[in-house]
From TrEMBL:
Keywords: Receptor, Signal. Residues 1-26 form the signal peptide. The keyword Metal-binding does not apply. It comes from Bradyrhizobium canariense. It comes from the Bacteria. Belongs to the UPF0065 (bug) family. Coiled coil: none annotated. It holds the Pfam family TctC. This is Tripartite-type tricarboxylate transporter, receptor component TctC.
């Protein structure tokens, strides 16, 4: 009994000291620059959103927030890097539907668990994608695209940010729903995919609206549809895929911030506080709205719950599309 009491007392002291240490760390946090890992190449929607948030949070935190683009394997390379990083609040990740909801189902050994290996900080926002084609492509509507693909099976290529990215699975989901065959061309990010699309090297791509709307407005790309439940404010004349006849079709991506599991709670709370302040600022609201991103702020717990539900949804789409990787 005496030994048990000594052990219990020691455990209580250790717990108290741990809590005190976490609070002390939070009081001095941050005292050096923070690295925000974006798991895709520069130029895509993740970089657009991530850099807006990084710039504003740097002002609010009083420390630099350095963006580190780490592309590869549909964003899972950079995501795994953060999962294995020190949980001290100085390496955080721009979480994304492709990496936290799709990757774990797409790959047999993705190298991280979206529920266990991260401490959610908070959601940023969501945005649908656009189905865009090069102006030289003969289809001017989704119906014409489907008819063309049926007449030319296996000859219509589409680009995405990489194997396992949201728009890869969305493309497979679209093809399956339409009863057509599309050939996926993976790139190391949305930026490289759009470069090839603009150059006419591929005829079609699925890409986030923030990354394509300027080129659509300039007539350099043609938007056939958007993947959300409703039309997007940046492209009000472009129908949803569901409107074109594929009833019930909907696929949007979500962004948020996460840190490695084990990051002290006070640090997570500090980051969430400044993230909420950033999202509430007129400057960030204007920048994200201009890029078609709907702000959806929330608590760490709300984001954790969303990650769980989003992973379940997309895992079903991955299995239904039959695109699991070794």
């Amino acid at each position: 009994m005496r030994i048990w009491k000594i052990w219990a007392c020691a455990a209580a002291i250790a717990f108290a000291m741990s809590g005190a240490s976490d609070r002390a760390a939070a009081q001095t946090y941050p005292n050096r620059p923070i690295t925000l890992v974006i798991p895709f190449a520069p130029g895509g929607s993740t970089s657009i959103v991530g850099r807006v948030i990084a710039d504003k949070m740097a002002q609010l935190l009083g420390q630099g927030v350095v963006v580190d683009n780490r592309p590869g394997a549909g964003g899972t390379v950079g995501t795994k890097f953060v999962a294995k990083s020190d949980p001290d609040g100085y390496t955080i990740l721009l979480g994304y539907t492709g990496t936290l909801a799709i990757g774990p189902s797409l790959y047999k050994d993705v190298g991280y668990d979206p529920r266990k290996d991260f401490a959610p900080i908070g959601m940023i926002g969501n945005a649908p994608s656009a189905l865009v084609v090069h102006p030289s492509f003969p289809a001017k509507s989704v119906a014409e695209l489907i008819a063309y693909a049926k007449a030319n099976p296996g000859k219509v290529n589409f680009g995405s940010a990489g194997v396992g990215s949201v728009n890869h699975i969305t493309g497979e989901y679209f093809a399956r729903s339409a009863g057509i065959t599309l050939v996926h061309i993976p790139y190391k990010g949305t930026g490289p995919a759009l470069t090839d699309l603009l150059g006419g090297h591929i005829p079609m791509a699925l890409a986030p609206i923030p990354a394509v709307h300027a080129n659509v407005a300039a007539g350099l790309l043609r938007a056939l549809a958007v993947t959300g439940k409703t039309r997007n404010g940046l492209m009000p004349d472009v129908p949803t895929i569901a409107e074109t006849g594929l009833t019930g079709f909907e696929a949007s991506l979500y962004y948020g911030l996460v840190a490695p599991a084990g990051t002290p709670r006070p640090i997570v709370e500090r980051l969430n506080k400044e993230l909420q302040a950033a999202l509430a600022s007129d400057e960030v609201k204007k920048q994200l709205a201009a890029d078609g991103t709907e702000i959806t702020p929330g608590t760490p717990e709300e984001y954790a719950d969303f990650i769980d539900k989003d992973e379940k949804k997309w895992s079903e789409l991955v299995k239904a599309s039959g695109v699991e990787q070794e």
